[in-house]
Amino acid sequence: MDTDSLTDQYSTLVWLAAILVGLLTLPIGLLVPAYFYIKADRGEGKSQSALEIWTVILTGILGIAAVELGGRKGAKILWGILAALFVVSILGGIALFALL
Questions:
Q1: Which UniProt keywords apply (predicted)?
Q2: Is the pLDDT of residue 72 over 60?
Q3: What are the boundaries of each domain within the chain?
């Protein structure tokens, strides 16, 4: 059995999560496993950190753009933006209920 296949650069969990996200968010979500396949085919998957991989899986096309444009730093910036939006939405919800 060939142990140096294209999918060996990512763990089984990464592939399962990418396929699950792809199926749950059809048709745009299919870009996630396609992105990993292209990265594995080119041999670039070995250089990706866990943060970059899970950013792509959990944020989809935004994650792909962030990782491709900024690498690890781009992934950190995207998570910072998402955290700020989450906090603002929580504060907005609190303010809305305070007005009622």
A1: Membrane, Transmembrane, Transmembrane helix
A2: yes
A3: 6-99
Contact call for residues 10 and 45 (beta carbons, < 8 A): yes
Give per-residue pLDDT as tens, 27-68. 888 999 999 999 988 888 888 999 999 999 999 999 999 999
CA distance 100 to 87: 20
> Could you write out the DSSP letters of every residue in 27-77?
TGGGHHHHHHHHHHHHT-GGG--HHHHHHHHHHTHHHHHHHHHHHHHHHHH
Distance CA 88, CA 10 (A): 35
Question: 32 CB contacts (<8 Å, ≥6 apart)?
Answer: 18, 21, 22, 56, 57, 60, 64
- The mean pLDDT of 67-85, rounded to a whole number, is 97
Q: Are 18 and 36 in contact (CB under 8 A)?
A: yes
If we measure between CA atoms, which residue out of 3, 6, 1 comes closest to residue 46?
6
Mean of the per-residue pLDDT values of the chain: 90
